[in-house]
Every structure is written in structure tokens, then in C-alpha cells.
Design a protein that fits this description.
The structure is a single chain. The chain has 281 residues and is of the alpha/beta class. Helices cover 34% and strands 25% of the residues. The protein is built from eight helices and ten strands. The strands form two sheets. Strands 1, 2, 3, 4, 5, 6 and 7 form a seven-stranded mixed sheet that branches. A three-stranded mixed sheet has the order 8-9-10. Helix 6 runs antiparallel to helix 8. The longest helix has 18 residues.
């Protein structure tokens, strides 16, 4: 049998559901999901093998950064464009509930300069009637060179199989880049660091989640097959420590317990998680 591959960039506005879609496609949580902006900070690759075809997906930061001139968001912009440059086709994911035709037109005009096949997916279709999307699809189809349109619900896994079966048609003969048991380019440390960051995003607000560094300093499998993990939250401002700890230690307790549960689910083992908060000296 001849092996094939296809590299796919998943792009779209912040909170369109890119990470949710990637996790559902892969069948494991490899990219964090949160309603806050810019939760995906680096480019994460997900690998889905279907028979002899290897599909490689690039989960990118929000497409808000396609034209960004903001120096603070420069790394996000670089990661976004790297995913686009590496890919064979572009999948533009849209939140069906919050569609903005002017923003979409601006984004698609920029993307068409790249001269790659573009597929548009309307996500969260379970929250809106398809009839409301038909005029928008008609406008986009008339104005831009869109290969095809799909409607899905990533969270409910509706329409994803049809999408995967379609894009397989664009795969081409090549050696696989990843082994058949690999599902991402990220290691366990990266994923569990991201899980702690996801929990911090859930419980803490404003600038704090974006101004901490997460490090795993110890990862050990015990004799009883439990896993002992030590993580550090390195803060840029000393004042963050009191907020993260919370009144009588309640906040850090919630963060630790929720993260520990998530890591246990990913690693399929009982996890003992220890968290330390340090200043970035």
C-alpha cells in the first residue's frame, strides 16, 4: 500500500473552536480549550492517520493576527503564518453565532494572496439554523475562490467525519512524517504544562494567565504506577502570588485539584500533583 500525507492549517478568529476541533479529530486532548482570547500561544501539530493517509493539522493562534503590527503579539503572528506556510490547504473555521462579514472579507482577501486551497467550516452549527448561513455562504462563494463549505459542531462531533473524508481526496503520495502511534509534535511535559495554564485561564482573569511561565520539574512513575508531578508557576509580578494562592489557599487548591484531574484523564493514571509559585528573578 502507498502512504499519503496532507498538511492542513486550521485558522480562524479567537474562540472559533480551533483547539476543540483538533482535539475531536485526534481523539485526545493535545490543545487547550478556553473562552478567553489567545489560549493557543504556540503552533501545535495534531496527527490523524486514516488507513494509509496521514493528516497533519496545524492548530494556530487566532487569525486576528494575520495583519497585526502589534510588537507584543509578534510571536503569535509568526506562529500563525508558519502554520499557513507549512500547510497544503487552509481550513478557515468560523463561529456561526458571531459571524462578521466585513472581518471575514478582510481575512479571506489576505489569505487568497497565498494561492492555496481554502475550505470554510462553520462551527457551532448546533446553536444556529443552517438557513441563516445560506445568504452568507452565497456571498462568500461569489466573492472569493472557496473550494468548499462545511457545517459542523466540533464539541458534539457533528460533521467532522464528512470533512475528513473530503480532505483525504487532496492527500498525495509521500512517506509519513510521524510514526503511526504519534498524535502530536508535543511531548507529555508540554501537554501537562498547557493543562495547568488552561486551569489558570479558567480561574484567573485579566493579565495574570498571560504573564506566567509553567514548568514541569519532576515527572516520576512510582512503584504502584501512580505518577508524581511537580510543576512551577513562575510569575512576572510578585503581586500575582497572593491572587493565585487566594484567600486561605482556596484558589491554588482549586487550580491544583482541577489540573490534577485533567492530567490523570490524559495519562490514564492516578496523578499526585505538587505546585510551587516562584518569582521570575
Amino acid at each position: 500500500m502507498i502512504n499519503k500525507i496532507l498538511k492542513v492549517a486550521i485558522i480562524g478568529r479567537t474562540n472559533a473552536g480551533k483547539s476543540t476541533l483538533l482535539n475531536k479529530i485526534i481523539g485526545e486532548k493535545i490543545s487547550i480549550e478556553n473562552k478567553k482570547i489567545n489560549t493557543t500561544q504556540s503552533m501545535i501539530l495534531g496527527v490523524k492517520n486514516i488507513n494509509q493517509t496521514q493528516l497533519i493539522f496545524y492548530d494556530t493562534p487566532g487569525s486576528n493576527f494575520l495583519k497585526s503590527l502589534n510588537k507584543e503579539s509578534n510571536n503569535l503572528k509568526i506562529n500563525l503564518w508558519n502554520g499557513i506556510d507549512e500547510s497544503d490547504i487552509i481550513v478557515y473555521l468560523i463561529d456561526s453565532k458571531t459571524t462578521n462579514i466585513n472581518f471575514l472579507s478582510d481575512q479571506l482577501e489576505k489569505l487568497q494572496e497565498i494561492n492555496k486551497k481554502i475550505i470554510i467550516i462553520f462551527n457551532k452549527i448546533d446553536l444556529i439554523t443552517k438557513k441563516k448561513l445560506l445568504p452568507l455562504i452565497s456571498i462568500l462563494d461569489e466573492k472569493f475562490k472557496i473550494d468548499s463549505f462545511f457545517t459542523i459542531s466540533a464539541i458534539k462531533k457533528i460533521g467532522i467525519d464528512e470533512f475528513l473524508n473530503y480532505i483525504k481526496n487532496f492527500s498525495y503520495t509521500s512517506k509519513w512524517i510521524f510514526n503511526d502511534d504519534e498524535i502530536t509534535n508535543k511531548d507529555d511535559n508540554f501537554i501537562i504544562n498547557e493543562l495547568l495554564r488552561e486551569t489558570i485561564l479558567t480561574y484567573l482573569h485579566k493579565e495574570i494567565p498571560y504573564n506566567v511561565i509553567i514548568k514541569t520539574t519532576n515527572f516520576k512513575t512510582l512503584k504502584n504506577l501512580d505518577i508524581k508531578i511537580k510543576q512551577k508557576i513562575i510569575i512576572k509580578e510578585p503581586r500575582y502570588k497572593k491572587i493565585i494562592i487566594g484567600k486561605k489557599g482556596e484558589m491554588i487548591k482549586k487550580i491544583r485539584e482541577r489540573t490534577q484531574k485533567k492530567i490523570s484523564q490524559i495519562l490514564k493514571a492516578k496523578v499526585h500533583l505538587y505546585i510551587e509559585i516562584l518569582n521570575n528573578d
